[in-house]
Amino acid sequence: MSQPGPPGSGAAPAGLQAQNGAAAASGAPYSNGPVHSAMMSSQVAVHQGYNSQLPGSYPHLIPAKTLNPVSGQSHYGGSQGLEQTLHRPPVAANVVAPSLRSGPVPQMPAPASQSPAATPRPSDDFLPGVSPLPPVNWQHSYPSMGSQMSHYPPPASQLPLSGNTNVSTNHQYVSSGDPSLQNSYVKSGSALPLRTPPLPTTFQPGAPPGPPPVGGPPLVRALVPQKASLRTAPQPSFSSAVNQEATPQLATKNPQMSRSVGYAYPSLPPGYQNTTPPSSSTGMPPSSLNYPSGPQAFSQTPLGANHLTASMSGLSLHPEGLRIVNLLQERKMLPSTPLQPPVPNLHEDIQKLNCNPELFRCTLTNIPQTQALLNKAKLPLGLLLHPFKDLVQLPVVTSSTIVRCRSCRTYINPFVSFLDQRRWKCNLCYRVNDVPEEFMYNPLTRVYGEPHRRPEVQNATIEFMAPSEYMLRPPQPPVYLFVFDVSHNAVETGYLNSVCQSLLDNLDLLPGNTRTKIGFITFDSTIHFYSLQEGLSQPQMLIISDIDDVFIPMPENLLVNLHESKELVQGLLKTLPQMFTTSLETQSALGPALQAAFKLMSPTGGRMTVFQTQLPTLGVGALKPREEPNHRSSAKEIHLTPSTDFYKKLALDCSGQQVAVDLFLLSGQYSDLASLGCISRYSAGSVYYYPSYHHQHNPVQVQKLHKELQRYLTRKIGFEAVMRIRCTKGLSIHTFHGNFFVRSTDLLSLPNVNPDAGYAVQMSVEESLTDTQLVSFQSALLYTSSKGERRIRVHTLCLPVVSTLNEVFLGADVQAISGLLANMAVDRSVTASLSDARDALVNAVVDSLSAYRSSVLSNQQPGLMVPFSLRLFPLFVLALLKQKSFQTGTNVRLDERIFAMCQVKNQPLVYLMLTTHPSLYRVDNLSDEGALNINDRTIPQPPILQLSVENLSRDGAFLMDAGSVLMLWVGKNCAQNFLSQVLGVQNYASIPQIRTDLPELDTPESARTIAFISWLREQRPFFPVLYVIRDESPMKANFLQNMVEDRTESALSYYEFLLHIQQQVNK
Ligand SMILES: [Zn+2]
């Protein structure tokens, strides 16, 4: 059971509990992304034991003018009496949002018909093959590297001593009652005496915050190209990562190799989607540790002074990264291979232990040391996480002692420092902790006295088997409840057949064990339960027609043990699709059905899967149509907010009982996803949307649902989960994005966690980081596996701190920035308006590039000068403006827009970027040159093209990968070879209007094309459908819509957009 804080946490837990109780009773607003911590607003966090008193309205947590209000007030639970002991240092009043200002916005000019000739117009009459002439003044001139760009890291003498190790605050989070993720700050007086750390010894696996050894290398790589080091060391470059992708064996089998290939993250080819964290790379003898899927490497030398000295060569960023780019002259900055995240500018011995950016990355890989510096850069600071991503290799530690900081509860990680064998210093709060006796023994090497070689200190990503004190109750069994809409409308779509068949096919693959429970509810105007009690000859249907006061008949027989009642379950799934075929009931009592499902699941928690095909019309939660087609194009007056708080309230009830709700919406009509989606958003579920699903008329959606259900039913699942993100003292997380409920200040409640969900947080620099060179971020996800084990997955990311604006810009991660801005813009759309959000996105570019121009560039050259790191920033923001979530002037249906927004919030960054800025490839001339080789399969790797019709030609075929959809456009004069050898048709005219698959032909061309498309599909958890498009196809408009660089009826071309940005920047 829950334990109180560690010894020394002075405050009385009882008092805090009471205080939290009071907060709940006072009707504190339920907050969820957008969420501000209690520190940032006076809003009160709610403890696990929340009641169901809810505010009547959806709280607008974000004022229209800023996304980052700071009050300096701290109300940890709202009790005035305890405020003194609970306050954190106030935040500087001048902290402002680095971006998304919506203030006076210069309107972008509407695209004029007499626009620059340079902008190709996508239209039906464009002439591929006849490339528009480039403007004559677009000379490609590369600015020479100015000496003003050289910045050295601060001298070693500025390294921190232990002066800031006192924990000055004296507060205790009492959150979930879950000791594992409970932050307990001890009284400042009770900390162990801290002393100046001695010079680093060999026991220094991570980043030594103390002074480096004399003559040792800086912890942070110099940003300047050093000719000498470039000559002696492998050239770190963007292409090295690409090369590695082609030769994964090097990265995985040869530790020397993986250490010497430079600064790119060693990674497996995307075909092995679940890449290994960079630190786990080499072979190891079997050990007593539980390594389920692969051995781990602990063979490298500990990061002692000698090692550091030996490996100090080559500490520089590729000169390319220091370039200043004039975007008006160099428009073609999109790399032809997938854009790699920037590599933090750390010493390679630290960097190689760092967390894989696919799991954990920061918008700024150089952390500004003060909020003032961050404000100057006008770039958003935040983290993007994919914490439960499927991994091929994951070190799992079973140990009776999980070593954590006694003060801030951080898990020991590769970036702590060992003062000696017996003491380690926390890299988040700087407290010095004792090394437990058990930790002195390394079970991998069977050597005593090398705590720095333990797997916990060698892996930035690791999973712990949690002992019993991490459990509030015995781990719940896996419980799956399916709720089916069986109204006339639902029966018409024919979905039941497909879904029941999928369930039958995957019943044995549902994650679980002998404890797995399953149940079914169907509903139209009434609610139907199914008794599946073992021993019955067939399922028994129970109909509840009083939807105003739902009760559960014979609750013990409705959620049954899957293994004991399997035959009954299978029988039900076989008969269910036929049971309602004659139903004429058009009403939908979704709300009451959800209430019933919630009651049924309350005792155990679990996953509720809801299928809905229309607007709910009966009982609680009934909705009215709100979409007005004429208003679709308007950026204002559209209904992005829920029309009722019923679904949110119910979701919070679900969250409190560890129930997550996944919504599958299969509807051709407006179904008010803005309201319905709340049921998933706040319960940590997911929304799936299949517009116009029909078993006969829409084979594409049928295929998509089938594939995605298969993934959904069989993927890993974590139950009763909570996640906490900690960061080094001085940094503060203030806003969370994703599907969850913020249970206490910074504890995310996730009744279910799935491997396909992404999260984002925004941060501020609360206290100056001038005394530190490195900061760390750690996410800890505590969950119950489907096998009933309590586990904790921990990721730790380490980044350098910088003091100059130029360095902040150099380390900008443009994809992470764009992803975080997209999340912020969704919030802004909801709390203010769509046009406000669009303005804010444009301002984000203008503000940051203005800051760069005025504060970093010394001589004011004409043009639009951007740091190399941000060369794609305007392009990505333009792509966001044209993305379904934020576009205007087109026929985006309201539910489609809401769904796109749900996706922005819930998808991992990599998929969000693909949806926003698709990848375009020419595929009629695929070759094996540069191809990947995965499991004896040859996967062609055609170059990525810019998204402009300029790059199309009528004699070719082009594949656009837009994340959830693949579009293969075939030109009118496409080579006969491609038509016959790949498409299997005689001529262009024989390509059907609608075609969604490729034949498997016995030709090398067909094999290459199919290998490439299959490979793209394998890399994502959802199923991208394929459309073969010819000029007359209805999908052609969608294809052209994604040509982000071209002008559309209502949106600027990339060149026009750049001119607009330049105008604003140079004002
Ligand atoms: Zn600590």
UniProtKB/TrEMBL annotation:
Q: Say if the entry is tagged with keyword Endoplasmic reticulum.
A: yes
- Residue span, Sec23/Sec24 beta-sandwich domain: 718-802
Among the GO biological process terms of this entry, one is:
intracellular protein transport
Nucleotide-binding in keyword set: no
Q: Which residues form a coiled coil?
A: none
Protein source organism? Octodon degus (Degu)
Descriptive protein name: Protein transport protein Sec24A isoform X2
Locate the Gelsolin-like domain: which residues? 939-1013
Q: Which UniProt keywords apply?
A: Cytoplasm, Cytoplasmic vesicle, Endoplasmic reticulum, ER-Golgi transport, Membrane, Metal-binding, Protein transport, Transport, Zinc
- Family annotation (Pfam families): Gelsolin, Sec23_BS, Sec23_helical, Sec23_trunk, zf-Sec23_Sec24
Family affiliation:
Belongs to the SEC23/SEC24 family. SEC24 subfamily.
- Per the database record, which ranges form the Sec23/Sec24 helical domain? 813-913
Instruction: Using the record's annotation, list all stretches that form the Sec23/Sec24 trunk domain.
Output: 475-713
Superkingdom of origin: Eukaryota
Biased composition range(s): Polar residues: 138-150, 159-187, 232-259
Which residue ranges are recorded for the region named Disordered?
A: 1-42, 99-290
What gene, per UniProt, encodes this protein?
A: Sec24a
Biased composition, Pro residues: where in the chain? 195-216
